[in-house]
Design a protein that fits this description.
Helix content is 9%, strand content 51%. The protein is mainly β. It has a single domain, classed as Pnp Oxidase, Chain A (Roll), CATH 2.30.110. The strands form two sheets. Strands 2-1-5-6-10 form a five-stranded antiparallel sheet, covered by helices on one side. The protein is globular, with a radius of gyration of 19 Å.
Length: 143
């Protein structure tokens, strides 16, 4: 029996602003998420190897996509306004739905994300306009 794996066509990404889906991003080129952890080591007298422990440090990632309407520009403006403290209480979340080949559905939720630089790239006249959203958050989980 062949093994089926999840492909990008089975993944969708939504950006949520203050509890409302701002955009169902269908033109996503890539969606990266990294669960950041550190391994701490300490050596003690009378022991032959170091003891290890791990510490969860948060989540980081990047969403890269093409622009097909004006919504991304409004979204960039909202990110900038929040970072300039002009809009109090704005919260951005990312959720991704992964449809598995066996019919099960997993959802990744990353709440209260913060963005670093947001580059908009126009690399050539025959290329699509691309922008990236590098982000960080305190936590995220698969449901």
């Amino acid at each position: 029996m062949p093994s089926y794996r999840v492909r990008g066509q089975e993944v969708s990404v939504q950006v949520v602003q203050n509890g409302k889906i701002v955009a169902e991003l269908t033109d996503v080129k890539s969606f990266d998420v990294e669960f950041q952890m550190d391994v701490m080591k300490e050596g003690y007298l009378g022991e032959f190897t170091d003891r290890r422990d791990d510490m969860f440090k948060g989540i980081s990632g990047k969403i890269e996509f093409h622009i097909e309407n004006n919504a991304p520009f409004d979204f960039i403006n909202a990110i900038v306004q929040r970072s300039q403290s002009r809009v109090k209480g704005t919260q951005f979340n990312v959720q991704s739905t992964i449809n598995l080949p066996n019919g099960q559905v997993k959802r990744l939720l990353v709440n209260d994300i913060f963005f670093s630089n947001v580059p908009v790239n126009v690399s050539g006249r025959s290329d699509y306009v691309t922008y990236s959203l590098p982000y960080e958050a305190a936590e995220g989980k698969f449901l």
